[in-house]
Amino acid sequence: MRVKFWGVRGSIPTPTHSTMGYGGNTACVTLRTEAGHLFILDAGSGIRALGQHLLSNRENEPLTGSVFISHFHWDHIMGIPFFMPLYHPNSHYSFFSFRHPHSSFQEVIEAQMNVPYFPVPMKSMAGERAFYEIGEQSFEVGDCLVTTRRLNHPQGCLGYRFDDGHAAFTYATDHEPDGGPFDRNLFELAHDADMLVLDAQYTPVEYEGGRRGWGHGTWESALQIAREASVKRLVLFHHDPDRTDLQLSQIVEKARKQFPALDAASEGWEVRLSRTIPVARPEKMGALERVYALAATPPIPRLVNSVVARTGD
C-alpha cells in the first residue's frame, strides 16, 4: 500500500513562512492499496490539493474512493466543500464515520454547506455519494480489512487500522492518553503496524501547562505507545498550528534518539509500505448494511461483529 500526506496540521490551517516546510494544511492522508482502492482519511484543508490531483489524473484513476472521517471538528471536515471531484458527475465517494448524538452522519457533513455558512449546498454536487455509520468494528472495503476503535477526544473520535494482506497501517489522530480503555483501543489498532500515524500536537511542557483535557497527546506519549505496540514506524501528526518547521525538526531529532524509526508528517511525503510476511486477516465476514445512497449503489463492504443503524433513505 502507498501512503501520502496532503494535510498534517491540527486545529487550523497555518500557511506561513515558518510552517511551509512541513505544511500548513489540516488533516488529510491517502492510502492506496495494492489492488488500487483509494482511502481518504479525513477531509481537512489538505483534501483540496488531493482533489486537484485526482481531477488532473482522472483518465488514469477513476474518481472513486472511500472517505473515512475520524470526527467532526472543523479542521477534519473543512475541505469537503472544496474537494472538486464531488462536483464531477462521474465521481462516486463513500463516506464512513460514527453517528453524532443529535444528527446523522450525513446531516453533520452537509451542515457546514448550509445557509449561512456556505453559498452552495451539498445537494449541488453532481457526484454520487453514500454515507455509512459505523462503530467499533471490523469490515472489508475493497481488498482491505478496516478496524475501528474509539479514541479519547472531546465529542468522540475514531481511529482506523487498514490491512490489505501486504501491510498494516494505523491512523490515530486526535487522541489524549487516558491510561485506560481508550489507550487499550489504540494499542489494539497499533499493534505490530507497519506505520502508525499518531497525534503528537503538544510538547510535554505545553500539555502540563494548561492543555490537559484538550484531547491531544505529546510526542513523548506517542513514543510510549509505539514501543508498547511494537510499531515498525511512527509518524508524528496533527502538528500544533504554532509549531514552526525548526521546532518540529528539533522534536524529531530528540525523539529519534529514543525511537529511531520515526518521522514527522509533511505535506507531499509519499511512502510505500510492504512486509515479507503477509498480514493475518479474519476469514469470516458478515454483510454491512447500506446506510444511505444518493444515487448508484457502490460495492457493499463486509462486516465483522457489528450492528449498523440505518439513517433513512
Any overview of this molecule?
The chain has helices at residues 47-56, 105-111, 181-190, 204-211, 219-228, 245-256, and strands spanning 2-7, 28-32, 38-41, 64-68, 92-97, 128-133, 138-141, 144-150, 158-163, 168-172, 195-199, 234-237, 262-264, 270-272, 286-287, 292-293, 302-304. The strands form two sheets. Strands 13-12-11-10-9-8-7-17-15 form a nine-stranded mixed β-sheet. An eight-stranded mixed β-sheet has the order 14-1-2-3-4-5-6-16. A hairpin with a 5-residue loop joins strand 2 (28-32) and strand 3. The chain has one domain (2-304): Ribonuclease Z/Hydroxyacylglutathione hydrolase-like (Metallo-beta-lactamase, Chain A, 4-Layer Sandwich). It is α/β, with parallel strands linked by helices.
SSE arrangement:
Blueprint (H helix, E strand, L loop, with lengths): L1 E6 L20 E5 L5 E4 L5 H10 L7 E5 L23 E6 L7 H7 L16 E6 L4 E4 L2 E7 L7 E6 L4 E5 L8 H10 L4 E5 L4 H8 L7 H10 L5 E4 L7 H12 L5 E3 L5 E3 L13 E2 L4 E2 L8 E3 L9
Parallel strand pairs: 3-4, 4-5, 5-6, 10-11, 11-12, 12-13
Antiparallel strand pairs: 1-2, 1-14, 2-3, 6-16, 7-8, 7-17, 8-9, 9-10, 15-17
Series of secondary-structure elements, N-terminal to C-terminal: EEEHEEHEEEEEHEHHEHEEEEE
Number of domains: 1
Question: Looking at this structure, what is the CATH superfamily?
Answer: Ribonuclease Z/Hydroxyacylglutathione hydrolase-like
Total count of helical runs of at least 4 residues: 6
CATH architecture: 4-Layer Sandwich
